[in-house]
Amino acid sequence: MKGNRVVLALTGASGAIYGLTLGRVLLSSGMHLTILVSGTGFQVIREETGLDLLEGSGDVQQALSSHLRPEPGQLDYFSEDDFFAPVASGSSAPDVMVICPCSMGTLSRIACGNSRTLLERCADVMIKERRPLALVPRETPLSEIHLENMLKLSRLGVRIVPAMPAFYQRPESMDDLVNFVVGKVLDSLGIENSLYKRWG
């Protein structure tokens, strides 16, 4: 992967643990991380992990820093209505963007170019600037609408990495299952990792 500026977005799909684990790994790899969270993303993070990023003062960046432990200056957070954030413009586009987990609603709006939030605008920027964008959809079963939207984005060069853990590694814990998916996301972006046992 060229560069080290990564945008990580978390939406309201189930699987917040994937996004938070990915954030931790990216930071430990020395990446500069910008985090975006959708409105329902905050709710799912709280329900699935117990982490309430809006609790107390409502300083989301401080809460993320306490949880992810970045080095000083390594982590930025922008709210979903902050279109003055650097990542909203192609002139300051990040090197890579990952939406993990990615809801079907977010995926649909990206496929249609409907940039109503900073998260969706940043994805639109990545597509128009032809920069790496990976989506980690977490839904089952998938309808024809979901599949058509994913096919449309895939044809535009977007990487679709479904949250589908494998079992050939003989997982012994939930962490093993999460690390497999996170490792596959990193593989798709060209970021070396040893999060899971590879085939053979």
Word description of this protein:
The protein has 200 residues and is α/β, with parallel strands linked by helices. Helices cover 40% and strands 14% of the residues. The chain contains seven helices and six strands. The chain has helices spanning 16-28, 39-49, 60-68, 104-111, 118-128, 144-155, 174-188; strands at residues 5-10, 32-37, 75-77, 96-102, 133-137, 159-160. The longest helix has 15 residues, at 174-188. It starts with a strand and ends in a 12-residue tail after the last helix.
Note the topology:
Blueprint: E1 5-10, H1 16-28, E2 32-37, H2 39-49, H3 60-68, E3 75-77, E4 96-102, H4 104-111, H5 118-128, E5 133-137, H6 144-155, E6 159-160, H7 174-188
Parallel strand pairs: 1-2, 1-4, 2-3, 4-5, 5-6
Describe the structure using short key phrases.
200 residues; alpha/beta; 6-stranded parallel sheet; 7 helices; 40% helix; 14% strand
The biggest beta sheet, please? Answer: 6 strands, parallel
> What is the helix fraction of residues, given as a range?
25-40%
Strand content: 5-15%
What structural class do helix, strand and pairing data support? alpha/beta
Order of helices and strands: EHEHHEEHHEHEH
Placed side by side, the strands forming the largest sheet appear as: 3-2-1-4-5-6
Q: Which regions have little confidence, pLDDT < 50, spanning 5+ residues?
A: none
Count of DSSP strands: 6
Tell me the span between the first and last alpha carbons: 25 Å
**So how many helices?**
7
Shape: globular
Overall mean pLDDT stands at 95
**Alpha-carbon Rg, integer:** 16 Å
